[in-house]
Structure prediction request, 472 residues.
Amino acid sequence: MTTRAHPSDAPDSQPGPLQVVVLAAGKGTRMRSRLPKVLQPLAGRPLLEHVLQTAHGLHDARCVVVVGHEALAVRQAFAARPQLRFCEQSPQLGTGHAVQQACPQLDDAGVVLVLYGDVPLVRAQTLQPLLDAARAGALALLTVRLAQPAGYGRIVRDPQGRVLRIVEHKDASAEELRIDEVNSGILAAPAAALKRWVGSLRNDNAQREYYLTDVVQLAQAEGLAVHAVQAADADELLGVNDRLQLAQLERLAQRRSAEQLMRDGVTLLDPQRIEVRGELVCGCDVRIDVGCVFEGRVELADGVEVGPHCVLRNCRIGADSRIEAFSHVDGAVCGPGVRIGPYARLRPGSELARDVHVGNFTEVKNSTLGEGSKANHLSYVGDASVGARVNIGAGTITCNYDGADKYRTVIEDDAFIGSDSQLVAPVRVGRGATLGAGTTLTRDAPAGQLTLSRARQQSIEGWVRPQKKSST
Ligand code: UD1
Ligand code: CA
Prediction:
């Protein structure tokens, strides 16, 4: 065995926090987008957020993100995470140069893990063996065997199988290009050692860049062990360079989330036809039909059924509720036991109590509906406070907007709103009141009474329908 040039790198000398450096300075030219690559959405969240989420899942990790291209936009996108640190790399002179920029923010104690902002699917459990090796004093690389290794750095080993170096595709000989074990780019090392190595990188290569991969030779030169951990699942290491790859990763991410949902006890009628763009939290025996899209944070309690082709965004649905086909639920809190749709639309601020029914072509916005109330057909309920057991007849409209301001409609418990009524807000329907069909309500309707605003019906005896005059 070779001796250690730096006793501080000896095994068990890497206590202290895990420091994660995320490389996210590259331009992402091939995306052909105004949005920086690491902000492109995957499963509804920026690529970089996936990586940060994974890092967060590693015990005690502190993150430094290296930004460069569109640095401000990237920083702003994560402004809500004050504990996240950034450093700027400008100009971008390679992956090694990127890590150099982070060095002033890295403690010498502990280990450093380097992740890529555009490699979003890597899992914490895949990284763990790297961290263990680095904690034991080694340089650890995450590698994978690929049938199509073109473009990647290749792992060059000696006849005994020890890693000698990484050669970039553009610098590789014909023989090296035949190597199918490639560098994922992800690595871990003792912090002090990595800082030392990246400080002495050179750019005498085909791309005139400071390659992070050259730390392998520097580790060898110091007699440090270099471990290559082969990932079992190549999909985890896929990067995003263009929109084709982004689409490919989207399918993988969706498959992953569908499988997790099913493992958690959710029935998906077709796991290939669900899109989760954010966080979907389900109780037990939830059943989701095909073509549904979930955005933001959606919570479905036990026994909820979602029919085909629904869109649910930032909402909470109580136990045993049913959302029928083609409904849109956005920013609503419902249930338990509600029935929504088919073809219903709940907009932000909708609160539906137990056993409420909102049926086809009914829109609810910024309104509360009390227990057991129903608006089953073709209605608009906006800025309304509706009590319990209210029946809102077909075609009822709350006229909440006068072109300048919005006003509230109050409908008290047990009221009955006849079909095709307009409630011109601000207006109140008293407890147990009935509105006759076709009422245009402009003043409050007293409790318990029938209110109607309707021209009296008349029939004219002997009336004759006009005849067309002959044109001669
Ligand atoms: C790198 C590796 C290669 C590996 C491949 C895996 C090096 C020298 N090569 O090559 O061995 O097979 O990844 O995908 O490391 N970045 C910066 N600043 C820079 C350059 C890059 O932050 O100056 C970031 C990019 O935003 C990106 C990541 O580093 O997230 C990788 O950069 P990229 O240029 O794609 O590296 P590759 O040439 O693909
Ligand atoms: Ca790349």
Summary: Residues 239, 241 surround calcium ion (ligand 2) (CB under 6 Å). The chain has two domains: 7-237, 247-451.
